[in-house]
Write a structure and sequence with these properties.
DNA-binding transcription factor activity, Rossmann fold, 12 helices, 6-stranded parallel β-sheet, alpha/beta
C-alpha cells in the first residue's frame, strides 16, 4: 500500500529493483524518449512500489517534436520504392509505435545536397531518418555540425560524422559469391552497379570472393543496372547477344534478380540448371518466386529499432555510434541448392 514517500529510498534502489542502470532509471523517470515505453513502465512501477519520490517531469525542449520524418531515397522512373525500403519502413514504424511517436514521409524526395538542405530547413526543429546517403553525404555532414537530430540508413563511409545504421553489404556479397563458387559456378556476373554506397560494397564483396578463389575479374561480367525488376532485362540481353559466357548472376537486389530470371527464361535459359541467380534483401517476393530466390536477409525489425533508438539519443543531445548489422544467407532453389 502506498503511503508517504520513503526519502531513504534512492534512485539506485529503484534501478536495482527494475533491473536497469541508474542512468536508465533516471532517464525513464524523466520521460526521456531514448527509453522505450516498456522500460519506462517497469521503472515507474518499481518506483511506486518502493514509494520513491518521482521527480516532476520537465517540459520537453522546444527542439524536440513528436513527429519524426522519413526521407525516402530517389526512385527514378519507378512509381514505388524498392520493396526492401517498404519493409524497412515497416520496421521503423513498429519501433516508433513502441515509443509512442508519430511518423511521416517527407513530401520531397531530395536528389542532391541543395534539395536535402532545403527539406531539412523547412522543418528546422524536426527529427529525421534518412534512407540512403550517397547523393548527399556532404550535406549530411554539414547538418550534423549544425546539431540537427537525424540518423541514416546506409553503410558507414569515409569522412562520415553522422550516425548511420546499415547491413554488412560486403560480407553478404562474399557469402553469396562463395556459395556459387562452391557449387561449381565459375563465370559469375555481378548485376547492379548503381550510385549507391551499399551496392558498391556488394560489388566489392563479389570481387573479393573471386580473387580469394584465384579467379580473374572479367570486366565484361560486371554490368550496370538500377535497382528495379525491369532494369535487369537490358544487361542480361546484352550479355547473351554479345555471346559472353556466364553460369551465375549475383544481383545487387532481389528485384534485379527476379528480373534477371524473367529475362533468362524469355531466352529459353533454365534457372538454375543453366544459370544460377542470387539476390539481396530477402523481400517477400523472393520467398514466393518460382524458383524461390537464394538471397541475403537483412533484419528490418532490428534495423528499425536501432534507427529509432539512435535518433532519440541524438534528439536528447547524446552521442550515437554508427552500427553495421550482420546478414544471413538464405539458400533456396534459384541457385540449385
Amino acid at each position: 500500500m502506498e503511503g508517504t514517500p520513503d526519502k531513504t529510498i534512492t534512485l539506485q534502489d529503484v534501478a536495482a529493483r527494475a533491473g536497469v542502470s541508474t542512468s536508465t532509471a533516471s532517464r525513464a523517470l524523466a520521460g526521456n524518449p531514448v527509453i522505450s515505453e516498456a522500460v519506462r513502465q517497469s521503472v515507474m512501477e518499481a518506483a511506486r512500489g518502493m514509494q520513491y519520490s518521482i521527480p516532476l517531469r520537465k517540459p520537453r525542449s522546444k527542439h524536440v517534436v513528436d513527429l519524426v520524418t522519413v526521407v525516402m531515397p530517389p526512385v527514378g522512373a519507378r512509381v514505388f520504392p524498392d520493396p526492401f525500403i517498404l519493409e524497412l519502413l515497416g520496421g521503423i514504424a513498429l519501433a516508433m509505435r513502441e515509443r509512442g511517436r508519430d511518423l511521416a514521409l517527407a513530401h520531397v524526395v531530395p536528389n542532391n545536397d541543395d534539395t536535402l538542405n532545403a527539406l531539412l530547413k523547412s522543418n528546422s526543429n524536426g527529427a529525421f531518418i534518412v534512407l540512403g546517403q550517397s547523393q548527399y553525404h556532404s550535406a549530411l555532414n554539414r547538418q550534423f555540425r549544425q546539431g540537427r537530430a537525424f540518423v541514416v540508413w546506409g553503410p558507414e563511409i569515409d569522412g562520415q560524422l553522422y550516425c548511420s545504421v546499415g547491413g554488412d553489404n560486403f560480407a553478404g556479397a562474399v557469402k553469396l559469391t562463395r556459395h556459387l563458387l562452391r557449387s561449381g559456378r565459375k563465370r559469375i556476373v555481378f548485376l547492379g552497379l548503381a550510385p549507391f554506397e551499399a551496392i558498391t560494397e556488394r560489388c566489392r564483396g563479389y570481387r573479393w570472393a573471386l580473387e580469394e578463389a584465384g579467379l580473374p575479374i572479367d570486366p565484361r561480367l560486371i554490368r550496370s543496372a538500377d535497382i528495379g525488376y525491369d532494369d535487369a532485362f537490358d544487361p542480361v540481353n546484352d550479355l547473351l547477344d554479345g555471346s559472353v559466357p556466364f553460369d551465375a548472376i549475383v544481383a545487387s537486389t532481389d528485384m534485379i534478380a527476379l528480373g534477371a530470371i524473367a529475362a533468362l527464361r524469355r531466352r529459353g535459359i533454365d534457372v538454375p540448371a543453366d544459370v544460377a541467380v542470387v539476390g539481396y534483401d530477402d523481400v517477400a517476393l523472393a520467398r514466393h518466386a518460382t524458383p524461390a530466390l537464394t538471397t541475403v536477409r537483412q533484419d528490418v525489425v532490428r534495423a528499425g529499432q536501432l534507427l529509432v533508438s539512435k535518433l532519440f539519443r541524438r534528439e536528447a543531445g547524446l552521442s550515437a555510434a554508427s552500427e553495421r548489422l550482420p546478414t544471413e544467407m538464405v539458400v533456396r532453389d534459384s541457385c540449385g541448392g
